[in-house]
Write a sequence for this structure.
């Protein structure tokens, strides 16, 4: 049995410190994309494996959450393409350079307000989100639930900021329409 070097132990410690706090957020995002708990777990596992593989290139203290969401989204796209038998695949090597474009402050997923918000999303709201087309749902989730900036989302999805703004506006309007029945059931009236 070979023992780990100090460098390998340090990598594991750094990885645990930077990456592990974001597992719940990754799972929630994966579940929104796949709508299946088992697929979401597989997607998160795939993301963690890739993150560990590329972790030597990750700059400690940068926005690990954004970096992980990018890997997860690319994994989801790649898996979808495999299932659809499309020949084009996502290039995972670009993940290694992604973090250079993200220099935002570190985010913590342990924020009580975020946890409370996630617990408040009930089945009606989740179902309304699920009814929105994926391109719009993804942007709404990344912006309004995960609190990423337009620039971070544009980098994650490889689309211009203007497209992000447009998808967010349209996605919010679609969500609003989906939630009108929900609001009526809860006793709210439209003015």
């Amino acid at each position: 049995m070979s023992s780990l070097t100090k460098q390998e132990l340090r990598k594991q410690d750094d990885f645990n410190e930077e990456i592990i706090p974001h597992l719940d957020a990754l799972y929630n995002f994966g579940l929104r994309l796949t709508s299946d708990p088992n697929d979401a777990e597989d997607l998160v596992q795939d993301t963690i494996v890739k993150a560990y593989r590329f972790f030597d290139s990750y700059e400690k203290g940068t926005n690990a959450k954004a970096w992980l969401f990018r890997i997860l989204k690319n994994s989801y796209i790649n898996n979808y393409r495999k299932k659809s038998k499309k020949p084009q695949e996502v290039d995972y090597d670009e993940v290694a350079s992604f973090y250079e474009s993200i220099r935002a402050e570190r985010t913590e997923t342990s924020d009580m307000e975020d946890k409370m918000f996630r617990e408040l999303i009930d089945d009606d709201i989740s179902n309304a989100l699920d009814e929105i087309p994926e391109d719009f749902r993804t942007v709404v989730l990344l912006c309004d639930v995960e609190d990423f900036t337009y620039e971070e989302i544009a980098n994650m999805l490889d689309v211009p900021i203007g497209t992000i703004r447009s998808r967010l506006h349209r996605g919010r309007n679609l969500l609003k329409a989906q939630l009108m029945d929900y609001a009526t059931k809860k006793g709210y009236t439209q003015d």
Residues 85-90, 92-110 have pLDDT under 50 and may be disordered. DSSP finds ten helices and no strands in the chain.
